[in-house]
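Quick start: what a row looks like.
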Amino acid sequence: MSGFAVLLLVALVAVVPGQTVPGQLESAPDDPVGALALARAAVERAPAEFGPALAVAGALTALGRTDDALAAFARSRSLLPDDPGVGEPSAFADAASAYLVPALLLRDVDRTGEAIRLLEEAVARRIGDAEIYEQLALLRLADGLADDALAAVDAARARSLTSPGLKLARGLALARNPERRGEALDHLQGALRNGVGDPVVVHLEAADLLVAAARYPEALEHLGAAAELAPDEPEVVYRLGRTLAAAGDREAARKALDRYRLLEEARERAAESQRLVSGETVSALSEAQRLAAAGDLEAAFKRLTGLSGSRDDSRVADVHSLRAKVLFSMGRTGEAAASVAAARRLEPGRVEYHYLEGMFLYAGGRPRDAATALERAVALDPDLGEAHGLLGMIAAEGGRFGEAAERMERALELGLEGNAPLRFNYARVLEALGRSEEAKVQMEAFDRLGQPPPR
């Protein structure tokens, strides 16, 4: 994707301050896993209703599970009425979000064409939300479709839709037409006055228009404002230097371009340093895994000690997870639970971390906390048989035999037929419920597996 396209795609970031999703959606909940559990329960109660399906998609989005979220949004759209553009304002906003949020997700993974087609479908279904047209215009611009972008803004105007973001989108579209740059500049300056969009991007766009008209002093005012807002952004400093040179101020241009080179070199050094740290982390993880597999747990733990890395490094959670597994194998269950909890906080969307935390907490004699972690795992993956089985054990130990039987039966349905301890404990639960014949069936299945009874 070109730098121009990237600028366009972030141009409206400040329309809804503090959010990266459309304004009509509520911000992500403090506990997105809990929100997902509630949404899934609502879907079970009303599988054909649009609202619960949309809530599942929103929770998956908050957890960063893009592919699952896209599938859930598609499911929610299939439940919309034939004419979703008619109805209560709140229902109308929800219908718009079922198109807008997945379009933004597709945009963020460079699937711009799909995002455009999705928003075009929304327009065809008469979902006339202003943000739909804003993003459609920006995405078309990013794809080099300036005339189509302007058509999207004009279509919004024809439907009496107006918003600060639409005016900015119009300015950005008009800026691609040499004959309408003056009009485009008016829109961009209006956006700056009204605080619409990312001011750095808007200043740069306005400066480009002024440079094209050889209005260098005005262009430099915009570039200077952009440099004050983003003094360490190489692109801003580079454009400032080039414009100073075009305006004839060679000394100031030289200083700006020298600073640009320094910023680029610093960025490259930082990236190289991060690559080295990441490489060291990968190497340490590989060596620790080898040592653990060979049974040298002390050496594996020592190799992982001190590894932290940057929070942005995806391997940091892997370090915490592997350290937890090593600690658990060493019998240090409390520390293991704490370590995997650190991994879970870094990547709350990874079901493995929730399940491992539940397993370690259970082994450490904390069944209530274990159940909480396991329920989170099930919320993320309702088909995780191991979590259902362990929740069944916790319920049985708490004397809740009916719940235990349901959980254990679900675990067997999800592929744990060959799990001998599950068969044995399920048989005991069925006996406690007075279901002797079913218990006998489970014990026969256990005997066929040829394993000794668990203690």
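That is the whole record. The chain has 23 helices and no strands. The two ends are 60 Å apart (CA to CA).
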